[in-house]
Amino acid sequence: MGDMTDVMTQHRLILYPSRILAAQHTWLAYAVLGKPHSMGGPTNEHNPSERVAAHRQALCRTFALPPDRLICPDQVHGHVIRPSSSPAFEGTDGVVLADTGYGVLMNFADCVPVVLVAPTARCAALLHAGWRGTAAQIARLGVETLAQQTGCAPETIQAVLGPAISGPCYEVDSTVVEAVVPTVKELPEGAVQAKAKAEGKYNVDLRSINRQQLREAGVETIEVLPYCTVTNNLQFFSHRRGEPGRNGVFIHLK
Q1: Disulfide-capable partner of 219 in 36, 92, 104, 214 (CB 3.0 to 4.6 Å)?
Q2: pTM
Q3: What is the per-residue pLDDT across 111-156, written as a single tens digit (0 to 9) for each?
Q4: How many other CB atoms are found less than 10 A from the CB of residue 189?
């Protein structure tokens, strides 16, 4: 299990650096965890497999976090955001972390991880934005919720979009396009592209659309980590590639 801890430390410090999150190191710890250690799967989050449970325990040891203070929401591709003080996290795709000594772990297999940081309030939020969450504007809701709960202005919030499927790899039909395009006032260039040789098919860049949602919500500082979960398949699990494993994104209020 010591090797597992070493791998997690390596992930956090070397493989997936974030300028914004690293700047908060005195009060906020983070990790982006890909292969080979799945942090979740199709099973219920409250009843993980033995292997996944062992990986989560190793994560807690790495950050000296008591296991009973690790929040693992039951993600449903929705837009419900709960505070870390909530008694339960069923049907939850966003958590506002305001309690020192607690951590949040969420699972991703191609969807967009959105980390929001409020440096002045020393609070953060973690959001799960698949196409349904994007359609429900969970990024904007996250900014509004964090601002309301901390009293900070949206322009002081900083955002990081983690590893996710890239636009060229995310082929969808008109259902997805019609759901996500109306969520922004101005569609970023290249965010939606019709496929020339496949009628009714499109490539959609979910990170680009979520970034625009954040901008329109007032967030000025946004960092996009340049990793595609499909093309970087040696590093990340990908649902599009038929893999059952899940990448983990973790934040911890020290």
Answers
A1: 214
A2: 0.92
A3: 999 999 999 999 999 999 999 999 999 999 999 999 999 999 999 9
A4: 8
Q: What is the CATH number of domain 2-253?
A: 3.60.140.10
From first CA to last CA, the distance across the chain in angstroms is 23
What does the pLDDT read at residue 29? 92
- Which residues have CB under 8 Å from 168's CB, separation 6+? 203
Q: Say what the pLDDT of residue 209 is.
A: 99
Closest CA to 130 of 169, 195, 176: 176
Average pLDDT over the chain, rounded to an integer: 90
What are the helix and strand counts (H, E) for the chain? 7, 13
Q: Which residues pair with 28 in a beta bridge?
A: 253
Q: How many CB atoms lie within 10 A of CB 100?
A: 13
How is the beta sheet containing 158-161 ordered, strand by strand? 81-83, 94-97, 123-129, 112-118, 158-161, 221-224
Q: Where are the domains of the chain?
A: 2-253
